[in-house]
Predict the 3D structure of the following.
Amino acid sequence: MLTKLDEGYVTFSFIKSNGLERTMTATRNLDLIPVEFHPTSNGSPSLSDTIRVYEKDVGWRSFKPSTVINHV
């Protein structure tokens, strides 16, 4: 599923840190992310166990791959 994020939008569900289930449609493919939201630097350091993605029509978000429960 993680490699598909680099190709296009992927819809998946995961368990948030508060225990609630969340569904997200996201990508890491810069060709699909509006230019005004492209990173201008490496940004703030992220935890090694999190993945940073662009959620469609929302903005940048992150999640832990170990919490993914399903994907389309």
